[in-house]
Amino acid sequence: MKNRMVTILVLGLFLPMFGLAQNPIVQTYFTADPAPMVYNGTVYLYTTHDEDETVDNFFTMYDWRCYSTTDMVNWTDHGAVASLNDFVWSGKTNGAWAPQCIERNGKFYLYCPIHGDGVAVLVADSPTGPFTDPLGKRLIDGEDIWHDIDPTVMIDDDGQAYLYWGNPTLYYVKLNEDMISYDRSIGKNGIVASEMNPEAFGSQKGRDGKIRSLYTEGPWIYKRDKLYYMVYAAAGIPEYIAYSTAPSAEGPWTYQGFIMERADHLAFTNHPGIIDYKGNSYFFYHDQDLSGGEGFKRSVSVGQFNYNADGTIPLIEPTKDGVKESISNLSPFQKVEAETIAWCEGVKTMSDSKTGIYVSNIDHGDYIKVRSVDFGKGAKAFVASVASALNGGKIELRLNNPDGELLGTLEVKNTGGWQNWTTQTSKVTKTSGVHDVYFIFKGGENQLFNFDWWMFK
Ligand code: FUB
Questions:
Q1: In this predicted structure, what is the pLDDT of residue 286?
Q2: Do residues 239 and 222 lie in contact, with contact meaning Cβ atoms separated by under 8 Å?
Q3: Is the CB of 149 inside a 6 Å radius of any atom of ligand 1?
Q4: Does any ligand 1 atom lie closer than 6 A to the CB of residue 31?
Q5: CA nearest to 280, candidates 71, 40, 119, 46
Q6: Is 183 one of the catalytic residues?
Q7: Residue 206 reports pLDDT greater than 80
Q8: In ligand 1, which atom is closest to the CA atom of 269?
Q9: What pLDDT score does 2 carry?
Q10: Whose CB has fewer CB within 10 Å in the chain, the N or C terminal residue?
C-alpha cells in the first residue's frame, strides 16, 4: 500500500487521492467484514484484516482488528485485538474470517470463524481485549465446519442469546447465559438449520439451473422496535446485500429485498453491519477501492441511512463521502492518540507493549487528517509524543485542508531510538473555533519518526 502512496506523492500530486473522501474508514490496513458494537457511548468496530501480501490468490487473513469512535468520523485504531494464535488447538495459520463481538454482564465475547475449523469464541474484560480462549476448542460442534463461518449474535429482550452463522445454510443455536455453550436440546445436537426457502431468503437460479436461496453468507442479526432483522450477503458471487425480517429471533423469516446492489468498486464479497448510534442509523459494508480493485484487499466503509416509516430499509448507495457530519467535536486540550484518524495517507500503525498503538512508517509527504477539532477560545502551543532513531522531521499543523493555514511547525528531533519517546512542543498561531486539522509530515528521504499522541495547550 505504502509504495503506491509514495509514488503518487513523488509525482508531486500532493492532493488527497480520494478528494474529501471519508470512506473507507481505515487507510492504514486493509479491513473487511465490519462488525460494529455500541457499548457505553462508543462504537467499537471489529474487522477482519486482509494482509498487504495476498498468498496463493486467496483470502490471507491472520488476525482481527478493532477501531472505535464517538463521533463517527475520527476512528481510533486499537490494533489487532485477537488472532489465530489465540486458538492454540487450531492448526490453522490462515482463515481469520468475519467475527462479531457482544457484551454481557461486563464481559466481551468475540465470536470468531476460523475458516476450515468452525466457529470459536474468545472472552475479555474490555472491548479491546486482551481476549483469551475460554474453551480450548471450537464452540460450534457442527457437521460441516468448512461452512461454519460468519457468526452473528444478539441477546433478546428476555435475555436469550442467539448465535446465527453459515454459508450457504443459515444455522442458529440458543446460547446459554455463559455465552460460551448452548442449549443442546433443540435441533440437531442444539443446532437448528433455517428453512432456506424463497419466502424466507429470496431465490435465484444457479449456474447449474437449480433454484436456490439468495442468502449466501455474512449474516447480521438485530432487533429494532418489534421487528427482527437478518441482513446478509446475497446472490453471491458477486455479492449483494439483502435482508429478511421476522416476528421472533427464531423466524419465520420473510425476504424483504436488496439493501446494497453491486457496484464497480465493491468487492466480489460484501458483509453488512448495522447500528443505531446517537439517534442515527449506520450501515457498514466493505469495498475494494483502496487497493485499486483487489477482492482480497478490501476496506470497510460506512454510510448513514434512514429507515422507512414501516421499518423497511431503503436501498443504500456505497459512497466515498461516508459520514458527512461529525456527531460531536473533538477536544484538542487533552491527549489525543495519533492513531485517531479521519483520513491519512502513507502512514501505518504499530504497537509496542509499553506505548500501545502508535503511528509509524511516516515519510515525507504523508499526512493525517483529524476532523472537527474544537479549539474553543484558543490554543497557543502544540505538544506531541514522538520518537526517532534518525534525523526526525517536521509536523506542519494546517487547518481545513492539506495546504490550508499554517498554525505552526513542530521540529521533531532525533530521540535516540524508534521507541525512545519524548514530548516535544512548538508554539502555534493563536487559533479558535472548530476546524479539521492536518498533520503534514516533512523531512528527508528516510523514515522520519513515530508519533504516539498529541494535544494543544
Ligand atoms: O472475509 C472472509 C470471508 O469473505 C467472510 O467470512 C465472508 O463473509 C466474506 O466476506
A1: 98
A2: no
A3: yes
A4: no
A5: 71
A6: no
A7: no
A8: 10
A9: 52
A10: C
pLDDT, tens only, 157-176: 999 999 999 999 999 999 99
The mean of the pLDDT values for the chain is 94
Using one digit for the tens of pLDDT, what is the confidence trace for 94-107?
Answer: 999 999 999 999 99
C-alpha cell recorded at residue 227: 421487528
CA distance 42 to 128: 12
Q: Which helix (H) or strand (E) holds 372?
A: strand 367-374
Residue 2's φ and ψ, nearest 5 degrees, are -60, -45
Pocket of ligand 1 contains residue 271 by CB under 6 Å: yes
Q: Report how far residue 292's alpha carbon sits from residue 288's, in angstroms, rounded to the nearest whole number.
A: 6
Confidence label for 14 from pLDDT (cuts 50, 70 and 90)? very low
Q: CA nearest 299: which of 269, 326, 256? A: 269
The vertex-234 CA angle with 236 and 24, nearest 5°, equals 90
Collapse the DSSP code of 200 into the 3-class scheme (helix H, G, I; strand E, B; otherwise coil) and give the result: helix
**Which amino acid is it at 397?**
L
C-beta contacts of 125-129 below 8 A and 24+ residues apart: 127/37, 127/39, 127/42, 127/44, 127/66, 127/68, 127/101, 127/103, 128/44, 128/66, 128/68, 128/78, 128/81, 129/66, 129/81, 129/82
Q: Is the pLDDT of residue 128 over 60?
A: yes
Per-residue model confidence as pLDDT tens digits over 266-296 = 999 999 999 999 999 999 999 999 999 999 9
* Amino acid sitting at position 324: K
Where does 13-166 show beta strands of DSSP type E?
30-39, 42-50, 63-69, 75-83, 100-104, 107-114, 118-124, 152-155, 161-165
Asked about 33 being catalytic, the answer comes back as yes
Among the listed residues 177, 183, 195, 199, the single catalytic one is: 199
Report how far residue 130's alpha carbon sits from residue 337's, in angstroms, rounded to the nearest whole number: 19
Instruction: Give dist(CA 359, CA 441) in Å, integer.
Output: 12
| Ligand 1 nearest-atom number relative to CA 233 | 8
CA 113 to ligand 1: nearest atom: 6
